[in-house]
Amino acid sequence: MAQPAPATAPEESAVRIDESVAVDPDSSLSPLLPDDDQAIPTQNLWEIILWGGPLMIPIALCSLLLVAFALERAISLRRSRVIPKPFTKRFLQQLRDGELDRQRALELCKENGSPVAEVFAAAARKWGRASVEVEQAIIDAGERATNGLRRYLRVLNGIATVAPLLGLLGTVVGMIRAFNDIGHADVGERAQTVAIGISQALLTTAGGLTVAIPALICYLFFVSRVDRLIIDIDAMGQEVVGVIAADEPAGRKSASSATSRRSNRQEPSA
Question: How many helices and strands, by DSSP H and E, does the chain display?
C-alpha cells in the first residue's frame, strides 16, 4: 500500500509562492512596475492653451473679462451700497414725522449719493405737487438707476454667448487640420495622428464651455439681484409719494400733525 506524500510545511509553501510570483527586473514584465524615474507628464495652463490652438487665446481673454466684471458687479450691487439701510430708515422716518422740507431732503440725498438717494431726490424736486407728477419723477429716476445697476451685465451675457462659439470654431478648425495631417501621414501613424488631432480640437470646446457656464450663471444671478433691488426702491418711492404729494390725504395729515407738534414744542410755556 502506497504511503501518502508528506504535507509541505506552511512556511515552505509560502516561500515557494513568493518565489513563483517574483518578477525579475530584467524580464519583460518590468515596464509594468512603477518607476520613479518615469513620472506621468503634466502640463500647466499656458501649455494647455497652446496645445488647444490659437482660438484658446480669445477664450482665455474671455475668462479674464469674466472674472473682472463679475467681481466689479459683486461689489457694486451690494445692498448696503444700493439701498443703505441707515439712510433709508432715517430719511423715511424724518419724512413721516415732518422733520424734513424740500431743501433739507435734497441735501441729505446729495450727501448720500446712492441709487435710492437719487430716486428720493427726484421725488423731492416735485415736493408738494400732484401724486402723478411725483410718481412719474420716481419712475424716470428708477429707470436711470436701473440702467446704472445693469451696467456691464451685457458683457457677461456676451461672454456666455461668444465663448462656446469660439470653442466650436476651434473644434472645427482642429478637425480640419487633423484630417489634413492624416492625408499626409503614413499608414502606421494615422491612428496616432487622429487621436492627437481630435484631442486638440475638443480642447477648445471644453475651454469655451468652461468659460460660458460660469458667465451665464453670473449673468442670471446679477439680473435677479438687480430686479429685487429695483422692487425695493419702488416700494420706498411709493412711501415717499404718500408723504410729499399734494393730493395725498395721508401725507398731508402726517405732515400737518408733525408740523403742529413741532410748533407746540417751540412755543414758550406760560
Answer: 11, 0
Residues 192-206 have pLDDT tens digits of: 666 667 777 788 888
Q: Which domain holds residue 105?
A: 53-164+212-251
Closest CA relative to residue 200, chosen from 63, 50, 60: 50
d(CA 120, CA 236): 9
| Residue 72, C-beta contacts closer than 8 angstroms, at least 6 positions apart | 152
Total domains in the chain come to: 1
DSSP 196-214: HHHHHHHHHHHHHHHHHHH
Cα 95 to Cα 113: distance, rounded to the nearest angstrom: 18
Residue 116 lies in a domain: yes
Is 24 within a domain?
Answer: no
pTM of the predicted structure, to 2 decimals: 0.70
Is the residue at 185 inside a domain? no
Q: How far is CA 183 from CA 52, 87, 190, 196, in A?
A: 21, 72, 8, 14
pLDDT in tens, 52-76: 677 888 999 999 999 999 999 999 9
With contact defined as beta carbons under 8 Å apart, do 135 and 241 qualify? yes
Q: What is the pLDDT of residues 5-27, one digit of tens each?
A: 554 444 444 444 444 444 444 44
Dist CA 119 CA 227 (whole Å) = 16
Q: How sure is the predictor about 28, in pLDDT bands with cuts at 50, 70 and 90?
A: very low
In a domain, 19, yes or no: no
Task: Map residue 137 onto helix, strand or coil.
Answer: helix
